[in-house]
Amino acid sequence: MSSGSESELEGEGETAPETTVEGEEAAKESAETDADGTTTNADSSSHCATPDSDGEVAEEIAIVTFERKLPTAEKIQSELADRYESIALLEYHGDVFEEHWGEYDCFIGLMASGIAMRKTAHLLDDKWDDPAICVVDEELTWAIPITGGHHGANQVAQDLATMGAVPAMTTASEAAGKQGVESRAKAMDTHVVNGDSTVKTNLAVLDDDLGPVARLDGPRAVLVGDDVTVLKRNEEDGIVLGTGSVSGASKEAFLAAWEDALDQTAYGFDDVEFVGTATRKEDEEGLLAAARELDLGIVVFDKETLLAHEGPTPSKSKELIGWPGVSEASAIAGGAEQELVLEKVSYENEVTVAIGR
Fold this sequence. Notes:
This protein has helices at about 5-10, 25-35, 70-80, 95-100, 115-120, 155-160, 170-175, 180-185, 200-205, 250-260, 285-295, 305-310, 315-320, 325-335; strands at about 60-65, 85-90, 105-110, 130-135, 140-145, 165, 190, 230-235, 240-245, 270-280, 295-300, 340-345, 350-355. By secondary structure, it is α/β, with parallel strands linked by helices. Helix 2 packs across helix 9 and helix 10 (about 250-260) packs across helix 11. The longest helix is centred in the last third of the chain and has 12 residues, at about 250-260. The model is unreliable at about 10-55 (pLDDT under 50). This is Cobalamin biosynthesis protein CbiG. InterPro entries: CbiG_hydrolase, CbiG_N, CobE/GbiG_C, CobE/GbiG_C_sf, GbiG_N_sf.
């Protein structure tokens, strides 16, 4: 089948009627559809390559490119190779997306957005199963998630940003500069069990009304409503960096404290599931910046949870403000086994760290 030239494809009337939706309806639309424009596909057997694709990182991606753009595609493949399990190169033809639908977690379309949209619209079925799509221009100026922003496309756009592209993310939480539920799940190495709930919980993120991630230990059955998102760990053998600090501690202090603590164990940063801390520390700029630099999620625990998981090292904060020592309690509360690997250590009287599992 003849693929046609890119200029011919780009001239097929890509202009769509402009629609403006404001306020909560816009946020709801973004949370519900992820800008997917989902249509029903008669054959719904195709799905993402990653078994639990809801909220997880994209691992297997493919770059779809015209022959003349192959050097740019190869450059992307080389630059991003160490971030993904595999990156395939597919030469564009009219049915290339349909032929490979379900084989990859995300497609990078090195082409006009209109081409990618028209060639995949009839394939879209369910945002939790469909592969994500991100388009980028040949000059690597813009990286635009088209579908599956929270399911790999935003992640790919952010990775392309390291090559100079501007990530044009339109999912409501990211556009507002906030971390959506799916992004939190990814950062914590968990996945979303009940995907439909993220409509309401992402709206709560926009309103700063979601609250901390709560932990429930079993064996236990749990009944939740449609406004509660359930996250399940992908691994059970990671560690948690329980962290406390004085107000205003720097990013460098947190990074150095974590490294110093890990050096006292057999673990490294690759073993860390997430950083645990207290709700009263969730806005510490240095903490947020340090976690962001290492691509680690932060889980905050309220006072009641930390009191229930108090560590062995006495803390003055309990006498002064009624809170237990944050580092040990959050390390215990966050760990799968709820035990300490390393008791509290202090770095430069700025940051305290304990390690749990």
